[in-house]
Predict the structure.
Amino acid sequence: MANIPDFFGSMVFDERVMKARLSAKVYHSLKQTIRRGERLDPEVADAVADAMRDWAVEKGATHFTHWFQPMTDITAEKHDSFISPAPDGGVILEFSGKELIQGEPDASSFPSGGLRATFEARGYTAWDPTSYAFLKGKTLCIPTAFCAYGGEALDQKTPLLRSMEAINKQAMRVLRLFGNESVSHVTTSVGPEQEYFLIDKSVYEKRRDLIYTGRTLFGAKPPKGQELDDHYFGAIKPRVQAYMDELNEELWKLGIYAKTEHNEVAPSQHELAPIYTTTNLATDQNQLTMEVMQKVAAKHDLVCLLHEKPFAGVNGSGKHNNWSIATDTGVNLLSPGETPHENAQFLLFLVAVVQAVDEYQELLRTAVATAGNDHRLGGNEAPPAVVSVFLGDELTAILESLETDTPYSAAEKTVVKLGVHALPRFARDMTDRNRTSPFAFTGNKFEFRMVGSSQSIATVNTILNTAVAESLRQYADELEGANNFNDALHTLIQKTITAHKRIIFNGNGYDEAWIREATEKRGLSELRTTPDCIPSLIKKKNVELLTRHGVFTENELHSRYEIMLENYSKAIMIEAETMTEMARREILPAVTAFTAETAENAGKKKALAPTLGCTYETKLVERLSGLTDCIADKTAALERAMLAVRETDESVNEAFTIRDVVLPRMAELRAVCDEAETVTASDYWPFPTYGELLFSVR
Ligand code: ADP
Ligand code: MG
């Protein structure tokens, strides 16, 4: 392998390339656009497009695409070649500023949640200069936002960019109040830790459920799962290591700081973490990472599973969203400071997050609600469906002493007065290593752990940014009119702690007693499944938040509400279809054939020696026949449930019917099929078992 610094970012039109290839004037103008979100001069756009094309063509590119993130959690692209006819019958390679700035893909096949009914079918993509263009194979990819003709966002990126603007605006107001004049911009950063499974391609290809739905819909428990905890952080197998090496290299070429890799809890489960970066970039890079993970796997005859719950009985996969907020002068606003002044600022930002999570817990929960993630949250392998914040015992004690104007510990004599006294020193609380908290403060960042492994991190960060922007807006409003800033700040922080401390919980999030306390005593909401969550998107309070900060219009929220319902229903209906097909065309014929063979063998034995009892064969035939009938019945029941869904009109009723009628029938069908698996000869079983899948990579 070549030297990492030599090829790092070689596929990215980054700062280094821009500086080298753009004139000083164009470079400066582009930087202004990026930093301040100013409009790009058409001449500048032409110059940038020329430079991009030359750079890309030199690296072998033939096509360009506007790369965007529709509401599918995966990215979309439509390739156009650079070629343009020359008068002499030849060809020239062209790429104009106009083509760079705007594209017009046909939007009609992307989820729009009804936005298309009122607007034109066409959508447009608009260049997002805050994220670098990059090369994928022979294609120059231009990160873009994707909107309907009326300007309504049809993607995940547009609201995210708007939320970054919202939090910047409100955080700047607060920083100015602290007398901070040197900062000109505030951004949030994210480091997403990505979990995934790797299995051998040959076993994958024999499982229609994995191919169609990304998860196994059948499969009896194997003799060995994750009981021994021997996989977590275990030695990485050479084949997996070779995969990770190539993956890292490909990601580095794309300018992605892939940093940490290790085995996870379940057999065949692994994790990759990059170094954190601006939320906008982190989102694009996480989408690319998921794509490259799958591509590199194919080269190694492996398949990378990004589904939240590919296998029952072992842990599913998530994505830890490490989030912080920092100034362009390099100060992490969630980092405790040294001076009383810095501390007061840190505490205000800290309680802003606590308040945001408490006020908008339902929106945060909704941002991670998908059919796949429903299998994890609350399943004692991932955080519960109740959102709470972990701060650690020490920091919690500090907040308590501030709230009540009492000394923080017996040793401390003085009562801490904000802006006057420094905070008592506290250590990063290691008790959080149990990882049961959905939203943990880990020293200088918050880690949101409910996100599903296959989800885009755009929406969750959109909500987080906006909810925190709202706390900051209220604080700025209040403090801007204060006579004595320090006094007002002290009171404000006290008031906020009192109002929102119910969301703080440092104990074991998996504990049943906690769920009861959270919902019954503290009044926190527990939205167990996706259909429970989705209506939060159009609740008055949430609509007010998101429209006030210009992050979503009311129309857009209604559209997302429809899209979420549709995505949920479609995902499960595809699973149900797959199950009935596998049951009727694979499992039933296999079990019947094995039953017949067993009966035949008993017949042969009897023919040989009529006195033989053949009790084993007879009992087995009886059991298999009983199971076959039961499988047929359960399949028919599932088919009836699916019919009932098709007869439902409203999309919200459809989702609830699927949850309450289809999912239980699916579980019943699976249970009998899994039982049949345990008594059917392995030669007859029509697809690879859990054991073969989970231990397929050696
Ligand atoms: P772990 O959660 O396994 O203890 P770390 O806390 O070291 O691991 O980091 C996990 C992720 O958090 C990494 O992607 C890292 O880059 C990211 N991270 C670290 N500091 C910050 C920060 N200030 N803001 C956002 N993400 C961060
Ligand atoms: Mg972590």
In short: The pocket of adenosine-5'-diphosphate (ligand 1) is lined by residues 189-191, 193, 273-276, 322-324, 332, 442, 444-445 (CB under 6 Å).
